[in-house]
Design brief:
The protein has about 260 residues and is of the alpha/beta class. The protein has seven helices and seven strands. It has helices spanning about 20-30, 45-55, 70-85, 110-135, 160-180, 205-215, 220-230, and strands at about 10-15, 35-40, 60-65, 90, 140-145, 185-190, 245. Helix 1 links the parallel strand 1 and strand 2. Bound molecules: NADP nicotinamide-adenine-dinucleotide phosphate. NADP nicotinamide-adenine-dinucleotide phosphate binds next to helix 1.
């Protein structure tokens, strides 16, 4: 059996690709020869990433795309498929922080609803919109970005942790449902990574945390997660489905 490790000509949609891990994933996919729909809430950052990919000789188009906008999901997926002539790969990556103490009556419901909407509901909606196109692909791949917060939680992070745990459940259920069609659905749980989301954590606190909690003793770089994401998108990754992979420098492996 010969399996391809080439993404040349594959068509990929990445959400939250204007920065951090989404940007790194879009750039690596493009470097591997994929056509990439660089989508982000922020039009300017999506455009800057797409311009950078194009300048480097890759193929990318930017879309302004709020993943919590139900109608926009259908429109963007249809536009991407129309523009590139199909869709093979969906990376559900867009995300926000959602800390809130359980007894904060003024804010909890609001933060919960936003977390579930952006971090979980968007995944199923984007997958449902993409499905007709993925069904026509020879190597359909879905990668959902969750978090180590789905596997163990930080104090006062319950809206985020619950939504991310939902992503792992959605991944398993859809892997089972779509497996017979050859569509793989997998999930990555990043640990502490240097991105916009963690930019407000002071460097000294990052170092203290990483030394105390991870095996590697440091925060990760967005590219260290993105390479795993892209690996799950290869045609050769055809028998990997329903898995949740921590990319966390050994955070989940470490007890003491
Ligand atoms: P990031 O640099 O902040 O990137 C997240 C991107 O998502 C941003 O470009 C952001 O756009 C975009 N976004 C936010 N809300 C959106 C929406 N409603 N629609 C479309 N795009 C939206 O953070 P990141 O760390 O790379 O995050 C990527 C994923 O990894 C997220 O799902 C996050 O939960 C997860 N994660 C991160 C870490 C970590 O340590 N960094 C750890 C575990 C999991 P704007 O900047 O314009 O808001």
């Amino acid at each position: 059996m010969t399996l391809s490790r080439s993404l040349k000509g594959s068509i990929a949609l990445v959400t939250g690709a204007g920065s951090g891990m989404g940007k790194a994933t879009a750039e690596i996919l493009a470097a591997e020869g994929a056509h990439v729909a660089v989508t982000d809430y922020d039009a300017a950052s999506a455009q800057a990433v797409a311009d950078g990919i194009t300048a480097a000789g890759g193929s990318a188009v930017a879309w302004a795309f709020d993943v919590s906008d139900k109608d926009r999901i259908k429109a963007v997926v249809a536009e991407v498929a129309e523009r590139f002539g199909g869709l093979d790969i969906v990376i559900n990556n867009a995300g926000i922080s959602a800390f809130c103490p359980i007894d904060d009556e003024d804010h909890y419901d609001l933060i919960w609803d936003r977390a579930v909407n952006v971090l979980l509901t968007s995944h199923q909606r984007i997958i449902r919109a993409a499905l007709p196109h993925l069904r026509r692909s020879k190597a359909a791949r879905i990668v959902n970005i969750a978090s180590t917060e789905a596997l163990g939680a930080t104090n006062r992070d319950s809206p985020y942790a619950a939504a991310k745990a939902g992503v792992t459940g959605l991944t398993r259920a859809l892997a089972v449902e779509l497996g017979r069609e050859g569509i793989t659905v997998n999930c990555i749980c990043p640990g502490p990574i240097h991105t916009g989301m963690t930019s407000n954590v002071p460097d000294a606190d990052k170092q203290t945390f990483a030394k105390r909690r991870t095996a590697m003793g440091r925060y990760g770089a967005p590219e260290e997660v993105a390479h795993m994401t892209v690996s799950l998108c290869l045609p050769a990754a055809s028998y990997i489905t329903g898995v949740t992979i921590p990319v966390d420098g050994g955070l989940m492996a470490r007890n003491a």
